[in-house]
Amino acid sequence: MVKLTRIYTRTGDTGQTGLGDGSRVAKTDHRVASYGTVDELNALLGVCRLHAGPELDDALARIQNDLFDVGADLCTPEMDDPPYEPLRVVTGQVEWLEAEIDRVNAGLETLRSFVLPAGSPAAAHLHHARTVARRAERETAALATGAPINVLVLQYLNRLSDYLFVLAREANHEAGGDVLWQPGEHR
């Protein structure tokens, strides 16, 4: 159980922060950028929930909780002999996203053009969240070039951006349809 009795600690006042294993790194470290973007994505999903019906709200609430797992995984470097069992993303979390993508996509029309990130308020916010998920994935991939990470984190973030895409399409389907790119329309 997490217990926070004090919000400010002053330990980060010099540009350093603590990781899950107790080590200290610069706040500009790839690891911090990675889980910081996951946190940003989580906050944006809170905005998406303002525009969600009950079923979508439940799915986004689950994802928000899973994103805390992602952040915990990213902030705890891989250790040979950890003093405790670190929280790691598991295959079931990725598989849930895949099943959801398939379920939602089955009810959508086949795409014949790229989709503009627009439409209903819910769709626009979900598209925004999708782009932040992609940035979190890129930052995590950058982290992985210099440090070992749980590969399931990258898979989760990749599937999450796909899921947010089909959710945005579903939101637009319910509001009249996707906003499609018209190549060269204004040439």
TrEMBL record:
It comes from Spiribacter salinus M19-40. Pathway: Cofactor biosynthesis; adenosylcobalamin biosynthesis; adenosylcobalamin from cob(II)yrinate a,c-diamide: step 2/7. The keyword Calcium does not apply. GO terms for biological process: cobalamin biosynthetic process. Belongs to the Cob(I)alamin adenosyltransferase family. This is Corrinoid adenosyltransferase. Its EC number is 2.5.1.17. Its main location: cytoplasm. InterPro entries: CblAdoTrfase-like, CblAdoTrfase-like_sf, PduO-typ. It holds the Pfam family Cob_adeno_trans. It comes from the Bacteria.
